[in-house]
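can u do me a favor
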């Protein structure tokens, strides 16, 4: 496989768009070509929006019991990776990292664009994107989390996922010790407005991500 190279992300990016509650229902671009969002961004009514963004691949993260309402809607138009992942503190999220990394790299190397979504785009899908950025850019869990949060403020991997991601650091760092040329990422925080912060937390507990 060819080496994956992202365009450099400027260190002096200034975010002019404030985060508002309704943005949690949309997908956001995390790094060039990689989007994170909820299932609402991949529903049948969003086909034209997905095509307009140039999406070619979709990672659909769900538990089997959710398959009747979180499902691939456009298998004839997008390449899908469907993962059976529970939003549980006991779920082994790390086991999915290699498969997700291969899928994302193949998409991005070919010039495609990929959406990673769960149900709400908060926990499971966010953890997978964070893990991918950790390996790709050599980031700690904390730095990768903050970087993703800049672009999708509502992310909140459950405690089990967060713990596994922190424990994963020495594993991927050992592999990266033999490589060079990792891309730096901007670490400035996106300003946000959360007038419904209390409702947001209530919905986070009710929704799987």
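np, heres the sequence
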């Amino acid at each position: 496989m060819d080496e994956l190279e992202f365009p450099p992300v400027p260190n002096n990016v200034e975010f002019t768009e404030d985060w508002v509650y309704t943005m949690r229902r949309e997908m956001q671009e995390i790094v060039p070509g990689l989007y994170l969002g909820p299932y609402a961004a991949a529903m049948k009514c969003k086909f034209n929006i997905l095509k307009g963004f140039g999406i070619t691949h979709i990672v659909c993260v769900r538990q089997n019991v959710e398959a009747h309402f979180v499902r691939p809607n456009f298998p004839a138009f997008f390449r899908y990776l469907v993962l059976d992942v529970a939003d549980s503190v006991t779920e082994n999220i790390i086991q999915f990292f290699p498969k997700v990394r291969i899928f994302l790299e193949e998409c991005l190397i070919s010039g495609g664009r990929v959406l990673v979504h769960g149900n709400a785009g908060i926990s499971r899908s966010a953890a997978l994107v964070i893990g991918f950025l950790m390996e790709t850019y050599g980031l700690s869990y904390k730095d990768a989390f903050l970087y993703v949060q800049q672009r999708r403020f509502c992310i909140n991997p459950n405690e089990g996922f967060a713990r596994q991601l922190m424990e994963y650091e020495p594993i991927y760092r050992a592999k990266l010790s033999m490589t060079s040329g990792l891309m730096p990422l901007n670490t400035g925080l996106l300003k946000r407005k959360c007038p419904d912060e209390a409702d947001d937390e209530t919905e986070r507990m009710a929704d799987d991500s």
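The first helix runs from residue 47 to 52. hope that helps!!
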